[in-house]
Sequence to fold (638 residues):
Amino acid sequence: MHRRGVGAGAIARRKLTEAKYKERGTVLAEDQLAQMSRQLETFRTHLQAFASRHKQEIRRSPEFRLHFQHMCAAIGVDPLASGKGFWAELLGVGDFYYELGVQIIEVCLALRHRNGGLITLEELQQQVLKGRGKFAQDVSADDLLRAIRKLKVLGSGFGIIPVGGTVLVQSVPAELSMDHTVLLQLAEKKGFVTVSEIRDSLNWETERAKQALEHLLKEGMAWLDAQAPAEPQFWLPALFSELHAQDGAAGP
Amino acid sequence: MDRFSWTTGLLELGETLVVQQRGVRLSDGEEKVKFDSGVLLLSTHRLIWRDQKNHECCIAVPLSQIVFIEEQAAGIGKSAKIVVHLHPASSNKEPGPFQSSKYSYIKLSFKEHGQIEFYRRLSEEITQRRWESMPTGQAMQVNKDSQAGRIRAVGIVGIERKLEEKRKETDKNISEAFEDLSKLMEKAKEMVELSKSIANKIKEKQGDITEDETIRFKSYLLSMGIANPVTRETYGSGTEYHMQLAKQLAGILQTPLEEQGGIMSLTEVYCLVNRARGLELLSPEDLVNACKMLEPLKLPLRLRIFDSGVMVIELQSHNEEEMVAAALETVSEKGSLTADEFAKLVGMSVLLAKERLLLAEKMGHLCRDDSVEGLRFYPNLFLTQS
Fold:
């Protein structure tokens, strides 16, 4: 005969029920993890099927890669997080970007003594493509930017600085404040900047302009032309290649 | 009709198509010829006719050969026509279907209409004479032997068609690829949802989840590239994979580290390891997560992060502070050094040379002179000579 109510028996029974609920809780997570494991396997199969048909497309087409990246971002997936991930393993996306990372590091290292660790995205792209050789796949600006964003985590100062018409890639751990970035943007048009220009366009006092310029000089990102006619000019070697390109366009 | 030459029908560089019309019959003067039913194409440079049944049969005449044109209205049982009066064929004309003709004009019969528009366009082209200002690429060198020329033309038309088919196929492939990608992403999205739901369960249970389950969950997230929703830490350092990787790195990096003075930046390590692997490369995050495991796993290397944020791998036996003493000696010998100069002297990367000098400064052994000429380090005489 069952009798609910107080008593040692009831307490013991309650404790047992509670314990069972707790256990059930654990079992619930178990179930879900098992479910996830199964679904992962299924997903892997789908990805494999996709890869066998379209893997070439990823390596061959910058447009398709871009689209792929956008879709991943939209659902909250980072296909480049790990070389061990399904995406890298089965689609080969990883190798494409990680190798690009190596090439970017090497180009930046090689040119650092000249430009202080700042380079335009265009020049970087040119140099990387040169290094890859005639038969390598095409590499778009978006590809480079994604590879660079991944390199940030290595701590050696990789960063991206938008400057008007283009983007500068930083590859040294130098601290660049807002002031410095603004100067870079100002210099982008002509490749150089003067103290008067800074005072006129940005409304800074001379002292502030000089400090910011000096920092860029010290980091090797700016060169001083003290012989310039009107007043000293501060040139950015990173922008030299861009100037040449402009000259070319303006031809005879 | 003897002004016509065999052609591939491919447009030359600099030549543009203006208009085309099906169902056109050619006549040699008043006489019917076998070119009964074809597509007539007008380009900036030529008049081209291609047989509708036999695409390899294709002939053309340069617009420069045209003296003037006339319209002939349609009648009962008769199509509208354009009469094209031509200069005599030039002596170096490419071989064509007719060696000679007693007429100096041809007729274009528009059996499926289109005569009015074609006439208008042809007049325009003759007036504008665009072929004079748009030099085309090298005209095809066809053999004197018209038969051989015809066979060659056939081959190239075939190739052109194959290219067109390939283009269509590539387009089809790409749109298939996009479609398949969408479907794949739907499934990936389900995985993301599931992982969120599990993460919520874990949050609710507040620590009732076992270590084992955590590790499993992290590795699932790693496979999919999903950020850990519970801790927001990047991609599970502490997965089995990263632990194994850490052990591998310890093996791979021992010798290079010894050769490089016991210390290497993480970017150097990244390049070294991936160049060696060739395939199945490590992501930057993989490398960092593995390096974070070096010390916990008591391996002979360790990860160190300088104040500047620069990350390096050191041999456990390496003592950067001792190296600083050596650096001080070097700087004293030379009086003063910049990071570049020091790097060259000692055979280090500029990045690490600078870090060492900065550390020496932090420890009080060196002073800096920060000028526009660069950052120069001097022995700290305040300390030594006080």
